[in-house]
Amino acid sequence: MAVSDLIQQARARFGSSPSVVLRADQSTGEKTWEMFVIDEHTEHYLSIKVRGDSDRGMATGILAFIGGFGICMALFFAMQGKWQGVFNFLLLCTPLILGPFLWETRRPLPLPILFNRRTREVYFDHNGELYHTPWDGAEAVAGEFMLVGSHTDGMHNASLELLVRRLGEPDNALLVSLGLPMGKTLQMQKGFWEWLRAYMDNGPWFDENGQRSESDAYVKSMLAANVEPTGFLSIVKVLPRRRPLPVAVTT
After folding, report:
1. End-to-end Cα spacing for the chain
2. Could you give phi then psi for residue 223, rounded to 5 degrees?
3. How many CB atoms lie within 10 A of CB 45?
4. Short-list 18, 32, 41, CA closest to 188
């Protein structure tokens, strides 16, 4: 499939629901808005959390709960002096707890999506392969859809996906999601696109209208509700098994 058709195919998924193609050089008319997906917003780069790590710890928690019940049973048998029962429950429960714990603590952290103001490019690590797109000419597609449950009313959602290309292989492209779509509207996603436009073109600091500002007050106030940044990019400088991560280091 031609790269030029990828955006149109993505937009066709929304059918009759509202959708729009967003471009770096075109304003949406919305005010800037942060969608609680930014990990770090600095003078030189902005990073967006990758949802692939959102379930980390879930398997350990579920299986540890089950294993905890087994350990309680082992203690019950121990108080009765039934040591074979103790051995059987410990043999069953120990792998349930240690197995997922070791797996989740040892698997590599996913790298965030990186917007670099110095190089004016966006970078994304996909299974150890570097994808990127020049900000000048960047395209994204945003669209609304509804999820309906058997016992719940429909919930509006809106996704925002950016087109990126494999480094050195411009015909190899994919759409990367900029945050989870649940509970968002098309207007909100447009506002987040304006945040990215303001950062790349007028940043690093700007006001609610996206105009350059010497003060970081507005940006900091919008990010105040966010969790503490991971600082991941200040530690990791290399993409797994590939080439250096193009982060900007303060000099």
Report:
1. 43
2. -90, -5
3. 22
4. 32
